[in-house]
Design brief:
The chain has helices spanning 13-22, 35-47, 62-75, 94-112, 129-132, 138-146, 166-189, 206-212, 217-226, 235-246, 264-269; strands spanning 4-9, 27-32, 51-56, 77-83, 121-125, 194-200, 257-260. The protein is of the alpha/beta class. The chain has a single domain, classed as NAD(P)-binding Rossmann-like Domain (Rossmann fold). A 7-stranded parallel beta sheet has the order 3-2-1-4-5-6-7, with helices on both faces. Helix 1 (13-22) packs across helix 10 (235-246), helix 3 (62-75) runs parallel beside helix 4 (94-112) and helix 6 crosses helix 7 (166-189). It is globular. The chain starts with a strand and ends in a 14-residue tail after the last helix. 48% of the residues are buried.
């Protein structure tokens, strides 16, 4: 019998929640840049009965991503992929955010689109931030959709030489994720596989709490307080959304972004948050 493989890139709060929910009966290949975090997550899951393999990966490196894909194929049939790795604006420079959050996602989609098992599915963790920034132009979206992954950061509107603000870089990267997923859905579809993204709102993960403790924390708390849910989301709620998109019940769902934000964007767009800041960017 061929072993089913679940690949989870990023072992933060959401990555671990997805790995636990989806990993039973599969070989779970965990990948992360942080070797200590990777080892800790693998030890905990193995102790709890999961079959786990690990690989240190830099998603901004094409060679590193290709090594991950090769390792995954050696383990069995890749039936599910969850890409949760990313940097927040408070963690890194604009250039690092663009390389990890934008380029990294595109490289993974491109590499795994060649090897995903027919009938398989993937999810990419984007962000609510993508819905809060002004929309990309049609020309910008077309360029993001049709430029080879390794050349994406040469595009003027996402070039690290011109984008120096980390928050702007983050919003652009997450918008690009949605475009990349839409484009990849055609490639994955030719293999009989599906790919979607999830845009979480404020989630109670270590990264989420770091954001709440940053200078942007007050704004984030205000958005959460004024939303319909009125609270932070949990990693398990994101894992539940991922379980739907990765599962058979979503067999007719591909190329979409699922917003899981407790109603923050809905409140903003319906005028329920008076005085809320509107992100801006130069055209």
């Amino acid at each position: 019998m061929t072993t089913e493989v679940l690949v989870v890139i990023g072992v933060g709060g959401m990555g671990q929640a997805i790995a636990r929910r989806q990993g039973a009966g599969k070989t779970v290949l965990l990948a992360d840049f942080n070797e200590d975090a990777l080892g800790s997550a693998a030890w905990t899951m193995t102790r709890d009965g999961h079959t786990v393999q690990t690989l240190v990966v830099d998603v901004s490196s094409p060679d590193s991503v290709d090594c991950l894909a090769q390792r995954a194929t050696e383990l069995g049939a890749i039936t599910q992929l969850a890409h949760t790795a990313g940097l927040s604006p408070t963690q890194a420079s604009a250039e690092a955010v663009l390389r990890v959050d934008l380029l990294g996602v595109a490289l993974v989609l491109e590499s795994f689109g060649k090897i995903i098992t027919p009938g398989g599915a993937g999810v990419v963790i984007a962000s609510m931030a993508a819905h809060l920034f002004p929309a990309l132009t049609a020309e910008q979206e077309h360029a993001l959709a049709h430029t080879p992954a390794r050349e994406l950061l040469e595009l003027p509107h996402v070039n690290p030489d011109s984008i120096t603000d980390s928050a702007l870089a983050y919003g652009l990267a997450k918008q690009a994720n949605r475009v990349s997923v839409r484009a990849a859905s055609l490639v994955w579809g030719r293999r009989g596989a599906r790919i979607n993204s999830i845009s979480p709102g404020a989630i109670a993960t270590p990264m989420g709490h770091l954001e709440l403790d940053s200078p942007m924390g007050a704004s984030i708390r205000g958005l959460v307080a004024a939303s319909a849910a009125g609270r932070l989301g949990t990693p398990d709620e994101i894992a539940a959304a991922a379980a739907f998109l990765l599962g058979a019940e979503a067999s007719f769902v591909t190329g979409i972004d699922l917003l899981v934000d407790g109603g923050v964007v809905a409140a903003l767009r319906s005028g329920g948050m008076t005085g809320a800041p509107t992100p801006r960017r130069e055209r």
